[in-house]
Amino acid sequence: LGAFMAGLFFESSRVGQRAYEEIKLIFTAISSGFLAPLFFISIGVRVDLGAVSATPVFLAALLGVAMLGKVLGAGLPALWTGFSRREALAVGVGMSARGAVGFVVLSIAFYAGAFEMTDPAEPVAANLFSTLILTAAVTTMLAPMLLRRLITRPPSGRQRR
Q1: Dihedral sign (CA 55, 56, 60, 61)
Q2: What's the 3-state SS for the chain?
Q3: Chain segment 86-143, per-residue pLDDT in tens
Q4: What angle (nearest 5°) sits at the alpha carbon of residue 108, between those of residues 105 and 109?
Q5: Cα atoms in the Cβ-side hemisphere of radius 13 Å centred on 53
Q6: Spatial distance between the Cα atoms of 18 and 28, rounded to a whole number of angstroms
């Protein structure tokens, strides 16, 4: 959090416009081109794909709850504020594409020891981190495909198959 706070107070009025632009460009290139991919790799190597076969019902239920929660949590307020049903559904589906935020939160929980369990023989507990990461990844990957179906309409006179 200290680095984040330093970034908040890093302003052009404090360091000068030219220095601000140059330093911002350097940090953006380093974080986007090098550190962010390393972060996602560090998450990926901790995921056990065996969680899919170890807890298929739990994973499917979690995926359903995750999608439904976002569709209801964001779609209903959109509907109540005047969006059509289709538009409100698109808002809810669009909110399911927030997997990167889930990765960050789950990574913090992982390093804090939240996934250390006392009974590794319990399949859900043993695979909880992987299942949650997979849920975040799958909902994020599903969002663009579902949005495309919701937002694009077939040309008039033609029906989509």
Answers
A1: negative
A2: CHHHHHHHCCCHHHHCHHHHHHHHHHHHHHHHHHHHHHHHHHHHCCCCCHHHHHCHHHHHHHHHHHHHHHHHHHHHHHHHCCCCHHHHHHHHHHHCCCHHHHHHHHHHHHHCCCCCCCCCCCHHHHCHHHHHHHHHHHHHHHHHHHHHHHHCCCCCCCCCC
A3: 999 999 999 988 888 889 999 999 988 888 876 677 888 889 999 999 999 999 999 9
A4: 85
A5: 3
A6: 15
Residue 82 backbone class (left: φ over 0; alpha: ψ -120 to 50; beta: rest): left
Q: Note whether 113 and 63 are within 8 A (CB).
A: no
N- to C-terminal Cα separation, the chain: 50
pTM, to two decimals: 0.75
Decide: 139 and 70 in contact? Cβ < 8 Å.
yes
> d(Cα 106, Cα 101) in Å, to the nearest integer?
9
pLDDT of 120 reads 72
